[in-house]
């Protein structure tokens, strides 16, 4: 069995989607400070974190997308939403601000060679994280799915999906067809994944459980592929 980390690092100054809260990390307590309060040499160190629930590698709650009353927050969503059989397709040939169509998604599945069945989780490699992560361009220089590809995800019956970029929608889009499809279908997705080149064309178990944030609109996750 192999465990592959599909998560990006969390650190101060990390790139976040425009409009989201910046990530701040600080030392809250040091060994030097706390050692004065104990005997026998005991001390501890701890840090403070201030971050968006959509900042690092994360999953969206339906309430993030759907303004209607009763749309579930992250702590109200079923745990099996974030876990299950998965595969990954590669659309990394697409350039920033280009659109990925339904036809290209079909071609990517065929090229990958892995069977995509209804109820699976689908990861989509754009290679944005590999090319630009840690640079300001990462937040606005990536391709995105068009309206036909959004409908393709719905019609293929995937349980959830994820991308290695800040959004499955094109950053130049004003209508966000993928997010709108997720709102209509009650489907969630993961953003800011990493290392998808290691799972393209493979079948594996995906794990991306959110924190239990009361009424959360999303949550950071430690995304992992379990490859047998």
Give an overview in words.
By secondary structure, the chain is an alpha/beta fold. 19% of the residues lie in helices and 24% in strands. It has one domain (58-227): Glucose Oxidase, domain 1 (3-Layer(bba) Sandwich). The protein has helices spanning 31-34, 62-65, 102-112, 128-132, 147-156, 177-185; strands at 2-5, 24-29, 46-50, 58-60, 83-90, 99-100, 121-125, 144-145, 160-163, 188-191, 203-207, 218-220, 224-227. The strands form three sheets. The protein has a nine-stranded mixed beta sheet with strand order 1-13-11-5-7-9-10-4-12. It has a two-stranded antiparallel ribbon with strand order 2-3. The protein has a two-stranded parallel ribbon with strand order 6-8. Helix 3 crosses helix 5 and helix 5 runs parallel beside helix 6 (177-185). The radius of gyration is 19 Å and the shape is globular. 39% of the residues are buried.
How is this fold's topology laid out?
Elements: E1 2-5, E2 24-29, H1 31-34, E3 46-50, E4 58-60, H2 62-65, E5 83-90, E6 99-100, H3 102-112, E7 121-125, H4 128-132, E8 144-145, H5 147-156, E9 160-163, H6 177-185, E10 188-191, E11 203-207, E12 218-220, E13 224-227
């Amino acid at each position: 069995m192999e465990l592959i980390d599909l998560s990006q690092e969390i650190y101060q100054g990390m790139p976040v989607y425009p409009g989201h809260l910046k990530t701040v990390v600080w030392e809250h307590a040091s060994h030097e400070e706390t050692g004065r309060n104990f005997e026998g040499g005991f001390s501890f160190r701890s840090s403070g974190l201030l971050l968006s629930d959509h900042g690092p590698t994360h999953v969206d709650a339906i309430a993030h997308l759907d303004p209607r009353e009763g749309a579930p927050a992250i702590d109200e969503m079923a745990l099996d939403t974030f876990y299950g059989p998965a595969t990954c397709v590669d659309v990394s040939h697409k350039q920033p601000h280009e659109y990925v169509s339904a036809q290209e998604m079909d071609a990517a599945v065929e090229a990958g060679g892995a069977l995509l069945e209804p109820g699976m989780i689908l990861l989509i490699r754009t290679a944005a994280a590999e090319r630009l992560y840690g640079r300001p361009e990462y937040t606005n220089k990536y391709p995105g799915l068009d309206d036909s590809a959004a409908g393709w995800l719905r019609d293929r019956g995937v349980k959830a999906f994820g991308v290695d970029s800040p959004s499955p929608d094109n950053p130049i889009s004003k209508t966000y067809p993928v997010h709108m499809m997720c709102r209509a279908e009650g489907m969630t997705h993961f953003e800011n994944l990493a290392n998808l080149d290691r799972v393209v064309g493979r079948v594996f178990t995906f794990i991306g459980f959110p924190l239990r944030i009361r009424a959360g609109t999303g949550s950071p996750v430690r995304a992992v592929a379990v490859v047998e």
